[in-house]
Amino acid sequence: MPTYNRTPLAFERGDGAYLFATDGEKYLDFAAGIAVNALGHNHPHLVATLKDQGEKLWHVSNLYRIPEAERLAARLTAATFADTMFFTNSGAEAWECGVKVIRKYFHHKGQPDRYRIICLDGAFHGRTLAGISATRQAKMIEGFAPLVDGFDVVPFGDLAAIEDAIGPNTAAIHLEPVQGEGGIRPLDPEFLKAVRGLCDQHDLLLYLDEVQCGMGRTGRLFAHEWAGITPDVMCAAKGIGGGFPLGACLTTAEAASGMVAGTHGSTYGGNPLATAIGNAVLDVMLEPGFLDQVVAKGKALQEALTGLHNQFPVIETVRGKGLMLGIKLKDELPAGDLVQALRDQHLLTVPASDNTVRILPPLTIEQTHIDEAVAAIAKALGALSQ
After folding, report:
1. 235 touches 97 (CB < 8 A)
2. Given 104, 238, 297, 328, which residue is catalytic?
3. Among 152, 209, 232, 354, which one carries the catalytic annotation?
4. Is-catalytic flag, 209?
5. Is the pTM of this model over 0.90?
């Protein structure tokens, strides 16, 4: 189906932060497969794990125990708020699992009328029918009515609007700590704390979408950790598999109390090959100092980009956290034009809503990559300013 407006560019191999096109041209990858290639390309530990597991066992289905999945689940629960999880193939499936966990929880408690979830404007929760119903963005929902009921969308960052939207049918409040597709819009830690407070006050579940902002992207394993809060339910994907399709829905034991045998399933989710690679990603991310270096490189990159703000007034602001940054442009320069100009400079980035260019490099970049990227951005902005 012609659902993608693809760039006429194909790659044949990758090495660290670089991609090499079929015509031999070299590109610095500051898109990372939209935050998926968290450890860059051709990472030796991931490649070795893939070869090793590939020669042993790929798939058995969830009819049997899967030691690699059990090990990954044990490590992720030990490193997070979660007591249990469900593995999926994608972020959209992980997100939808979270919605089912919430609805089943209240049904299990004898409150089936509590099924509505409050969501924030500008969010992105995948392309399933329920996912687009939770965002209500015109470009995503046109032609797909009737939408799935049960989602109440309120303005981004408006605590009073959230409180006003809470009613007798409300089950949860749902948000991304840092909106990705929405234009790299971080929520203030105090806002997150206040939302956690509302959930506790009204007996609601807090459901976080960390598909893009999780797995080390902001300099913590998950972005909500910066606020010192914990959710009840959370979906994760993208960086969790380092490029291999893998997602997870993580929950507390209480929130998952309604999810008993037969209530959910997946043919491929959590298979031996996927979860072996997930463990390999975690091997690297949990190494002492790994996340600290994400914080340091993120600060260096953000400072350099902010420096460009003074040089090029077309930049409205630079925002984000860690290595999840966004260049918000004034309306006179569409983000898509800058993304194209950066591609001409052999720097790959990603456009987002709110006229923003997403900067999502591998978490393993070095200062030389930052210098190279900032020089390319300055050159592209200079060319567009002429």
Report:
1. yes
2. 238
3. 209
4. yes
5. yes
